[in-house]
Each structure stands twice: as structure tokens, then as C-alpha cells.
């Protein structure tokens, strides 16, 4: 066996190293040194991110295939992993206050270890070109997350959320594996490429094929919380500790969206129009609309952001259906912007929850009078999520719509039209939060408090990202450049 | 009588459907977990049978089965741990009592 092919997995190995070091630190260092664990984990993750980007800049992360085609990496894949890493670092920074709190000190190390393992699983999921590796990645990304959701031992909601998450996760992965088994029976292989060729050669849409595609899509759709499979989302987001919720809503979702793209294109690309085009259309329309309509009636901020993230997942899917370099770049850009704006919102929610324990939208009334900076950060996040220029969210939506329209069919014009209508609906409920903070008057607003240093740092980074990503065009153009040199097998038509 | 693939596939499918039925109707979380296990094992049978009868050249399906069994074990262990936590907090494992958060 050629051991040098392990070098292709540079980013995974770096992450594994970070995990091992954090684990050793947590296990063997005395109690006094444990206070330094968060900073230690953040610095190491940051170093791994920087190393990933450097390798990429030096061109050593070129298209490589390892382990007989089971694993593949390319500049685009390296970039998406880097984006996820940046998001993870911000989540880690924002979670310091929570991790240092009274009832977390015993289990502080577990949070970091589980988080790094899930990140590793997501890496595998994105790079896998064989369904066995993909399944291992999927499971190691979702099982530790259930443990993270249950981390808040003293709150009953945390346990309830964890049960709901683990039971639905196992159910959906059983459905996913049933789809895989049919696919294996039909094509005789689990390599993405071999399945693709087998389906191209024998591309008639029989019932078994449609069934297996539907099962595979629903299995991954669960992780992405697309609409018929979204019912776990709100409960889990509400019950989980806020830091875990923010991780779940951005990093997990971004990674799965990209893995979904890879599976759809590289496995089912040749049967796009005959089998799953209509499925994807139905999923996108349902996801955007239902997510929006349910978000309107939520008063709990975490539930509200859960439904908002359901509808955002629908917009991300538009990038998949666009099926060209622009769509791909727009999708990566969308995920990047979504990471920053959602983490800004969760940063504010987390800061307020840590200081006062309140998460309801009614508690936000008159927040501007007492905590003007926090309300300003929240306003920027909401504007960005809703897509108001000049913040990044406007451009990400603009690019993703343009990318989809470039495909040019009549159906896609209808689809984008519906998505545009939904943007207007979403504006209503995002602005409800802004209205509560700035306009609603109340006798008893939340008291003025000073958020901790780490929380402020996290908010500064995310707010800078929300504004900077919108104004500086370099980010999008470099992503577009990357997407244009992506190998042809990233797109299903042509 | 020759035993063909269909003699394995039909029981596997029945097993899977029983699992889905049990998952939806059972109120006890442990019973739900057992139903999930039925579903996962049905999939394993599917893989082994497809490998043995349709594509005997390579062992991809068998290996997938092996890994799937390990993953299923991990899932069960984690789910049991979480259910024990729920039992400590709520003193029962009836799934209908998980109604703190809804809509």
C-alpha cells in the first residue's frame, strides 16, 4: 500500500491532530491549567485553518484522488473546508463564556472534543467519493452532535431535544441506507463514479431507481432540514445550548449542503431531468415557503432562527439547481455569508441569555435603550439575513438568484419568482425583531449589562464579516475563479 | 427447491416495514429504539443479499454491512445514554411526555 496518499488528507489530518492535542490537554493537565483549554482549542483550530489556506495558496492542494478513488480533494473542496473552519472558530470564540460557566466546567473538554469530531465527520462527508466513507462521515457528523445537544445536564429541554434529534437522525439514516442498498442492487457498486456510469448506461427511470433516489435525498434532506423532514429542527434548536445551536445551524448545514451537491451531481447527475428534477423543485418551494410561514408565529428567538434557517436552506438549494460555475460560487458565498450573519444573531442571543437568561422576543422590547450596541449588531444580522443592501446577505441572494436564472429554463424562472416573493415575506419577520428592539416601548426592558470580552470579540468579527463580505468584492470573485476551474464532474449538465 | 435472492429480500423488506410501523406506533422509547434497530438490520440483510446473489465478484456490500453494524451499535449506545438521562429527569420513558417544546 502506498502510504503517501495519506498526505492528500492534509486538512483532515491537521484537524485530527488538533483533536488529539485538545484531548490530551483535557485528560492529563491539572485542574488549574484547564482554564486555558478554550484558548488552546481556538488557537489550534485557527492554526489548522491557516495551514489549510496556505497549502491551498501554494497550489499543493490540487485535485488529488486517494484510496482508489474513495477520497477526493480539490481547490474548491479545500476552500469549503476552510470556510467551515472559520465558522467553527467563531463558534468556539462565542462559546467561551458558556464553557466557563459554573455547570459546564466539569464537561468543558467534551464540548471541544465532540465539536472537532463532528467537524472531522463533515470533512469526510464532503471529500468522500464512496458511499461507505460518506456514511461514516455522515454518522460521525451527526452522532456526536446529539451528545452535544444533551450537554446542558441541568436543563430538561436539552435532554428532550437530544432524544428528538437522535431518534429522527437514526430513522433518517436507516431510510438513507435502504436507498443505498437498492442503489447497490441496481448498479453493483458504491463508488460515486461507478454508480454514475452504470446509471448513464442504463438510465431508464424505473420505480426502484426513483425510490432509491428519493430515499437518499430524504436521508440527506433530514440533515439539511429541508421541509418534509424539518420537524426536528425547531425543537432541537430551542432545547440545545445556544452555542451548540449556532454550530448546528451554520456549520452542520453548510457542510451538508455541499455534500448534497456532490452526491446529486456525481452520483445522480445523468438522471437529473428524468428522475429528481421535480423532487428538487418541490423540496425548494416547500422549504422556503413553509420555513417562512412558520417563522412568522415564533416568539422564542432560537425557534425563530430555526425556521429562518430552514428557509435559508431552501435558498442554498437554489445554488445546487443552478448547476453552473456561478451557482457553485454563489452557493459557497451564500454559506460563508450565512455563517457570519447567523453567528452574529446567535452571538447576541447567547450574550443576552448568558447575562439574563431570557430568549423570548418579547424580552427584546426596548433593548435599544439599554444595550444599544447589542441591538445594533442584531439589526445588522437581521438586515443581512433578510437581504437588505449593502450588507452581505443582499449580494449572496442576488448572486444565487442570478446563478439559477442563468440556467434559463421556464421552470427555473417560476422557481426564482417564488423565492423572490418569499424574500418579501421573510423581510416581515426579520424586521419584527428590529421593531421589537428599536420601536416597541416597554416599562421593563432588559437591564444594561456588559457582555464578556470573548462575546464582544465574536460579535466584532461577525459584524465585520457581514459588512466586509458585502462591500469587498474580492471574496466572491475569488470563489468564482475557484468554481470555474473546478473539474467538469461538479456539474450535471454538459 | 432453490433458495433465490427473493427469499431473503422479502423478509428483509417486511422487517423494515415492521420497524417503521413500530417506530411510529410505539410509545416506549426503548421499543422505538428496537424498531430502529430492526430497520437498520433489514438494510444490512439487503446489502449482504445483493452482494451474494447479484454482484458476487467483490465484497463491497459485505463490508458495508460490517461497518453499518458498527455504526448501528454506536447509535444505539448513544440513544440509550440519552434515554437514561431523560429517565433521570422525568422518571419515565414515555415518548408522549416529551411535550415541553412544540410547534
Structure characterization notes:
The complex is a heterodimer of chains A (494) and B (103). By secondary structure, chain A is mainly α. Chain A has one domain (3-490). Chain A is built from 20 helices and two strands. Chain A has a two-stranded antiparallel sheet. Chain B is mainly alpha-helical and 103 residues long. Helix content of chain B is 76%, strand content 0%. Chain B has helices spanning 5-25, 29-54, 60-90. In chain B, helix 1 runs antiparallel to helix 2 and helix 2 runs antiparallel to helix 3. Chain B has a single domain, classed as Orthogonal Bundle (Helix Hairpins). The interface between A and B is large, with 40 and 40 residues.
Write the layout of secondary structure elements.
The complex is a heterodimer of chains A (494) and B (103).
Chain A: H1 10-28, H2 37-57, E1 64-66, E2 71-73, H3 75-94, H4 96-99, H5 108-127, H6 131-149, H7 156-187, H8 192-201, H9 207-224, H10 231-239, H11 242-266, H12 272-296, H13 301-322, H14 325-356, H15 367-370, H16 372-386, H17 392-405, H18 410-438, H19 453-471, H20 474-484
Antiparallel strand pairs in A: 1-2
Chain B: H1 5-25, H2 29-54, H3 60-90
Helix pairs in contact in B: 1-2, 2-3
What profile does the largest beta sheet of chain A have?
2 strands, antiparallel
The CATH class of chain B is identified as Mainly Alpha
Structure annotation, total helices of chain A: 20
Question: What class would the helix/strand composition of chain A place it in?
Answer: mainly alpha
Helix content of chain A: over 70%
Largest sheet: number of strands, sense, barrel closure of chain B: none
Which of globular, elongated, flat, extended, rod-shaped describes the shape of chain B? elongated
Helices and strands of chain B, in order, run as HHH
Instruction: Give the C-alpha Rg of chain B.
Output: 17 Å
CATH topology of chain B: Helix Hairpins
End-to-end separation of chain B in angstroms reads 55 Å
Low-confidence stretches of chain B: none
Structural class of chain B: mainly alpha
Strand order, sheet with most strands of chain A: 1-2
